[in-house]
TrEMBL record:
Keywords: GTP-binding, Magnesium, Metal-binding, Nucleotide-binding, Transducer. The keyword Magnesium applies. This is Uncharacterized protein. It holds the Pfam family G-alpha. It comes from Rhizochromulina marina. GTP binds at residues 41-46, 173-179, 198-202, 267-270, 336. SUPFAM superfamilies: P-loop containing nucleoside triphosphate hydrolases, Transducin (alpha subunit), insertion domain.
Length: 377
């Protein structure tokens, strides 16, 4: 009796455990695990900031208050790199005498000390930036390191140096802090739980990625498409695009991602479009031969594609070739700093990701069957 009684308690307990496990598994199935991967500076964190602001909450006053100092650091770093390159490229000889002290200060300063960006120094920086030698150095920016999207901050240096400056969300999107380690964010998007992982993309960070490789529903792989003429920050002998193509190949052919759907965001299209005007892809020795052959073939189609479409098509082909035989990679051009653009791109990717998850897990092909599959709460 006692024995039977205890068995029934055990039964009840084990049923409870099973129930809990089943419910945990269901909960797990309802969560889409999404990895944001890609090389450093490609736009992963910027995209996550956009998703958080849209689907969770806008940045808090406290978060925004930290942005002002980040931007001041970004300005000092940009101008210090430019000044150092000016000296290295021996273009400082053409500089007006009154701008020389600014170059000297920039080449010896600690750019992390943002108190150095006083309104007076900001005025000097702006004068230096607008000078012909500085613009000549900027035109040769592929030869050194510069976060080229930060020109927008240099133009506003005086306003930003003012202690009363308050950053807004647009400023926050453009500010840059390199990610170290793995950050995750849970967002409910149209009734579906997304667990999103944002990793650091620089070489030293990549060995940490493996920690989040289990049970991944989808990857969004970010490519800085405007970086086709730039060298890596952490390895100045390797072209950034070449590195991204190799990294993409390594990632999508990893057996952990056999069933994972893959989207590629060809990001920084705004900078890409601008750069094409002064740095044709055919002028970069690494791409020149392949690009000319590609452009010749494509320009026979009617109507003839624009330079922008040709450029996007060319690099998309390079990533397709690196996809290790995967035919269903979704490619989308994007501008992560442009809220309406990136949210539209995301909406497209989100639908594709959910549809493929349904197809893979439940054999469902009709989007209206989402509820049946329990993917919506
Ligand atoms: N103009 C422009 N700037 C962009 C775009 N996407 C990102 N940026 C800027 O590029 C810089 C780098 O972006 P992040 O989002 O920090 O890049 P990341 O991929 O997270 O880099 P890591 O953390 O080093 O891996 C930031 O200053 C962004 O504001 C874009 O589409 N257009
Ligand atoms: Mg980041």
């Amino acid at each position: 009796m006692g024995c039977g009684g205890s068995k029934s308690v055990e039964d009840q307990q084990s049923k409870q455990v099973e129930k809990t496990l089943a419910s945990a598994q269901r909960e797990d199935a309802k969560t889409v695990k999404l990895l944001l991967l890609g090389a450093g500076e490609s736009g992963k964190t910027t995209f996550l900031k956009q998703l958080k602001a849209r689907f969770s909450a806008p940045p808090t006053a406290r978060e925004l208050s930290e942005v002002a100092d980040i931007i001041r650091g970004n300005i000092l770093e940009f101008m210090a790199n430019l000044a150092t390159a000016m000296v290295d490229l021996e273009l400082d000889g053409d500089l007006q005498d009154e701008l020389q002290p600014t170059v000297s200060k920039l080449t010896s300063m600690n750019t992390k000390d943002t108190a150095e960006l006083t309104p007076v120094f900001a005025r000097n920086l702006l004068a230096l930036w607008l000078s012909a030698p500085a613009q000549a150095v900027f035109a040769r920016r592929a030869e050194f390191q510069l976060v080229e999207s930060h020109t927008v901050f240099i133009e506003r240096a005086v306003e930003i140096a003012d202690p009363r400056f308050e950053a807004d969300f647009q400023d926050m999107l453009k500010a840059r802090v390199k990610t170290s380690g793995i950050k995750s964010e849970n967002l409910v998007i149209d009734g579906v739980n997304f667990e999103i992982f944002d990793v650091g993309g620089q070489k030293s960070e990549r060995r940490k990625w493996i920690r989040c490789f289990d049970n991944v529903t989808a990857i969004v792989f970010f490519v800085g498409i405007s970086e086709y003429d730039q060298m890596m920050h952490e390895d100045e002998t390797t072209n950034r695009m070449e590195d991204a193509i190799g990294l993409f190949h390594e990632t999508v052919t990893n057996e952990a991602f056999e069933k994972t759907s893959v989207c590629v965001f060809l990001n920084k299209v705004d900078l890409f479009e601008n750069k094409l005007k002064t740095v044709p892809i055919s002028s970069v020795p690494l791409w020149s031969g392949d690009y000319q052959a590609f452009a010749e073939k494509e320009s026979q189609s009617i109507p003839a594609p624009s330079e922008l479409d040709l450029g996007i098509g060319f690099f998309m082909t390079k990533f397709q070739e690196a996809a290790g035989g995967r035919s269903n990679v979704l490619f989308k051009p994007s501008t992560a700093t442009d809220t309406s653009n990136i949210l539209a791109v995301w909406e497209f990717a989100r639908r594709a990701i959910l549809l493929r998850a349904l197809q893979a897990n439940f054999g469902i092909t009709d989007a209206s069957d989402f509820e049946l599959a329990g993917l919506r709460n």
